[in-house]
Structures are given as structure tokens and as C-alpha cells.
Amino acid sequence: MKNKSYIGISFIILIFGIWSVPKIITKFKKSDLHLIGKVPAFELTDQNNKKISDKDYLGKVYVVEFFFSTCPTICPKMNENMLLLQDEFYGNPKFGIASITINPEHDTSEVLKKHAEELGVKHYNWHMLTGDKTYIFDLAKKGFNMYAGENKNVSGGFEHSGMFALVDKEGNIRCRKDAFENPILYYDGLEEEGVQAIKEDIKKLLEE
């Protein structure tokens, strides 16, 4: 009788174990987002005069943008949309933002701190970063392949991409694919569609 009970219990445990395996596999499965490559290494100074590097973001899903505090054109809209991302993931320690100025000669840590306060930056993993101008331009154009440059003939004196880069917990740049299965590379930081898409994909990466 004892042997029959033991066999019965063992059978139940075995079936339960088999049934549980797919759930465990699903939980740790990578999302369908395309892997572009490693985020370029960087080290800059944030609004609190603290050195921040790409390594400080490891273990976090984060968004990267290039901007400048006196930008009169696309930056206000990018700021508005980045604030939406802050609100969506506020309080989540696994989420972060890296806002890198392309006018570091003006945008010192002190200037960026005031700018952050005026914008309503509250998330402790949102770093507004400054440093050497040549270093930052190389990081934008050669590291991320996102345009940034000076142009005295345009309003504000600088031009830059309005796109957001999405980086996973392991430091990989990731993105979704379009209707033709082509990687979009970066997300439109100016349009509602792009912001909604990056929100959805941040959630996917947070679950990985």
C-alpha cells in the first residue's frame, strides 16, 4: 500500500514538474526585439557633477537621446516625450534615461541641474550628461550613428537627431522591426507613434 502511495505521489510531482518547465522557459525567454550591437562605451558627467558611464546602466533598460538645453526647435517636444517615459516607468529602478548634450560648453553640470529641475526630472536614473564637445560628437556620430553638429545658420546653432536609442540590461542596442521585417534601428522621439512603440518595447526588455 505504501509503495502504491509513493508511486502515485511521484507521478503527480513528475507531471507538475513537466507542466511547470514551459512556464519557466517562457519567463526567461528573450523578446523578439532585434539586436543591433553593443552600446558604445562612454563616460560623462551628470547634472549632479557625478561621473556616469555605460557600465552604470548595466542591469537597466534605458533610453539615449542627444539634445541641448537652449534648443528652440525639436528638443522641447523630445523633452515632453521623455517625460512621458519617466512617468510611465517612474519608481522602477531597472529603468533609466541618458540625455547627452551636444552643447557642453554652455551645458555645464550646473546648467543641466537647473534645466532638469525646470523640466521636472525626478527619476534617479535620468542623467543629463555633459563632457568634451569633440568626444560627444564622436559618440553621437561614430558611436550611435546619430547625427549631431554645429550649424550657425540654424536656430540655436546646432543640429541633431530627434531619435531615441533603446538599450537593454546587457548593454545592447535593441529595436523592433517594421512591416517588412527590417530593423527600425531607432525610435522617433517626436511622434506619438514612436513614443508608444518605445514604451511597449521597454516593457518587453524589462521582462527579459
From TrEMBL:
Record's keyword annotation contains Membrane: yes
Domain (Thioredoxin): residue spans on this chain: 33-200
CDD domains, per the entry: SCO
Matching SUPFAM superfamilies: Thioredoxin-like (SSF52833)
Keywords: Copper, Membrane, Transmembrane, Transmembrane helix
Database matches in PROSITE patterns: THIOREDOXIN_2
Stated name of the protein: SCO family protein
Organism of origin: Flavobacterium jumunjinense
